[in-house]
Specification:
Elements (H helix, E strand, L loop, with lengths): L1 E3 L20 E7 L5 H4 E2 L4 H6 L18 E2 L5 E2 L7 H5 L3 E8 L7 H10 L11 H4 L13 E4 L14 E3 L10 H12 L4 H21 L15 H14 L6 E6 L17 H20 L6 E7 L19 E7 L5 E3 L20 E2 H12 L5 H4 L17
Parallel strand pairs: 2-9, 2-10, 6-12, 6-13, 7-8, 7-9
Antiparallel strand pairs: 1-8, 3-5, 4-5, 6-11, 10-11
Helix pairs in contact: 8-9
Length: 400
């Protein structure tokens, strides 16, 4: 229910602090299973797309049945119809789309690719901590025990490290079963001679108090926001709730699985099938989060990622197999929306290993720009060791 990462000693700050200047917040969303970026953001003006996918392609925006057609973005790319709720955010220039993104490492192993992306060190398995933990700049002032939080049963790879980080499955149902057990457990930590154990225990109970204080507050999403049913929608609502409670959240993490679509990826129509269902949940969750936070989105950036994409050509079971290049979303009130990056094309000679969308933007280019320009941590080489930090590689997602 509740997990704590390794951390040094710290000083907690009061929950629900009244602060006129909010810190910038980065929310990372991981689509586990390798999402099919070519059907998430459809290159409908690339003729090779329809040749490669005779039964799985998303119809062009000009197709009469708009509910099953790509939603035109710029005359070349279109959103999957299940992402219709993101179109107003795109039109408001608060949604950036970076196509042909991915890792320079060629692995098609889910486990390795996820590990490399969460660590921020493609091809290197020896990295012990995660990029999102390292993205937290050192703080001289007191910091919150909820500074870095994941919604889930355990602390994800990306938040492990020296900075305090916690994982909570569900703050709504979170509880210490009885007061006597809580006091005894807290006393055990308080009198421990082990300073690491003492510090971790103290952080735990300070975080518990904050979460219990949040529980006591009635919460109704603002702006008529309606989060989708399921774990992802619940996670996004709880992240929004903690941000608006001003408990000191700086980075947050949530994931959504089920993207490994080897067969029956699509039903008889584009709006049906496994991918459509996944995108409905993702898109509705992101749109509800955006609406719920309202003006607070000026402090928040949300980035989505998946370990790799799918094959450009559909397979024999109406699905797609493990690929390479993919697409990333960045959403926020201070984001330069629109289409970013370079499109490599889908002709045979343009594909990676003659089968996959090529990568023209290293995923670390996107994340580094967010860490540096949004969070304000200029030590990018420490966040992504082995990566040559260069602002010239940034895509202009965060205005200078």
């Amino acid at each position: 229910m509740f997990g704590v990462g390794a951390a040094p000693s710290w000083l907690g700050r009061a929950a629900f602090a009244d602060t006129s200047q909010h810190k910038k917040i980065l929310v990372a969303i991981f689509q586990r299973g390798a999402a099919d970026g070519l059907n998430v953001v459809v290159p409908f003006a690339d003729p090779a797309y329809y040749a490669l996918r005779p039964t799985l392609s998303i119809p062009k925006p000009s197709t009469p049945n708009a509910a099953d057609s790509a939603i035109d973005l710029n005359g070349f790319f279109g959103l999957h119809p299940s992402l219709a709720n993101l179109k107003p955010i795109y039109d408001a220039k608060a949604l950036a789309i970076v196509h042909a993104t991915g890792s320079p490492d060629p692995t098609r192993s889910h486990f390795d690719a996820q590990d490399f992306m969460e660590a921020g060190t493609p091809g290197l398995k020896a990295t012990r901590d995660g990029w999102l933990n390292r993205a937290l700049a050192p703080e001289a002032a007191p910091i919150s025990p909820l500074r870095a939080i994941a919604l889930g049963p355990s602390l994800p790879r990306t938040l492990r490290g020296v900075n305090p980080a916690i994982a909570v499955n569900n703050i709504i149902d979170f509880q210490v079963k009885d007061a006597a057990s809580s006091q005894m457990f807290e006393s055990m930590y308080e009198h421990s001679a082990d300073t690491v154990l003492h510090g971790t225990g103290k952080e735990t109970f300070e975080a518990v108090k904050m979460l219990q204080a949040i529980q006591k507050q009635n919460y109704t999403p603002a702006g008529g926001a309606a989060y989708p049913q399921g774990r992802f929608g619940q996670s996004m609502q709880q992240i929004a709730r903690m941000i608006k409670a001003n408990v000191g959240v700086e980075v947050a993490f949530a994931d959504i699985g089920g993207w490994d679509t080897h067969f029956n990826q699509m039903g008889q129509k584009a709006s049906q099938g496994v991918l459509a269902n996944q995108l409905t949940e993702l898109g509705n969750g992101l749109a509800a989060f955006y609406k719920d936070l309202g003006d607070r989105m000026s402090d928040v950036a949300v980035v989505t990622m998946s370990e790799f994409g799918r094959t450009a050509k559909e397979n024999g079971t109406r699905g797609t197999d493990h690929g390479h290049g993919n697409v990333m979303f960045v959403m926020g009130g201070n984001i330069q929306g629109g289409i970013h990056g370079e499109w490599p094309g889908l002709q045979p000679e343009q594909l990676y290993e003659n089968r996959d969308l090529n990568v023209t933007t290293d995923f670390r280019d996107v994340l580094s720009e967010l860490v540096s320009s949004h969070l304000g941590n200029r030590q990018v080489s420490a966040v992504f060791p082995g990566y040559e930090a260069d602002a010239k590689k940034y895509r202009g997602i965060v205005p200078a």
